[in-house]
Amino acid sequence: MLAYVLKRLASALPTLFIIITISFFLIRLAPGGPFSLEKPLEAKVMENLARIYKLDRPLHEQYLLYLGSLLHGDLGPSFYHRDFTVAELLARGLPISMLLGSLALILALLAGIALGTTAALRQNQRVDYAVTGVATLGLTVPTFVTAPLAQIVFGLWLAWLPVAGWDDGAVRNLVLPVLVLALPQVAVIARLTRAAMIETLRANHIRTLHALGLPQRVVLARALRSACLPVVSYLGPAAAGLLTGSVVVETIFGLPGVGRYFVEGALNRDYTLVMGTVVLVAVFVILFNIMVDIAYAALDPRVRGEP
Length: 307
What we know:
By secondary structure, the chain is mostly helical. It has one domain: MetI-like fold (Orthogonal Bundle). The chain is 75% helix and 0% strand. Helix 4 (86-121) crosses helix 11 and helix 7 crosses helix 9 (216-243). The longest helix has 36 residues, at 86-121. The mean pLDDT is 80.
């Protein structure tokens, strides 16, 4: 197992390097710059700003300087929030995004596995059709539709919950964002669990367990372990996307998470802030995928090349 983990870690470094390189040059191709304003600054001021932030140097030199700073853990200063570094801004937003993402992921796992298992046990019955229909609806309706609808229904019409705001993480302010974040993931996990459970329940070893007269709960537990493999594979990108925050959901609900800084950085051509967000998300995606691979290998030894 240790050799398998080390191999996965070694293969992750080139991936991270490629992501950083592509992102660095792509953002520089966008028109405008961090100091491009509606009312242009004086030429001398622009020259001084470019020199201070090393934007006057050739692009390849800027790239090498950024890589050098990144190796020392320095994400650079923010061009827009000039009193803060990128690391300080992300340190403020990341705990909020991680709290929302963690709650949404837990909710999605519990609800998705429960719904998928129920649908599989009642295949081609009304419950199965209902779960499949709701899951399809959850996949097709985007969050920028469900979020305003939730605000209108639960915030304005019923006045049960706040429409937006953080309020130091009050539970009432977390309910709607977490639900909106979790809904698409519930749909995906439910469909994956249903399909895997239907196949697993027809497998020979499950039929053997039934023939031996084992209790239904024991058989279901064995079947669920095998059926969870597709769900485990999906958890890598899902967890990374949720734990680093949804740009749409955080923006609509006015939450001060990482997503807000990504939007602000993109709109204001804040190169370092956008790059910092990209690096953060990339690291989370890679780490969670490695964790998923380890969990998958623990559940199925054939993945790591063992009999």
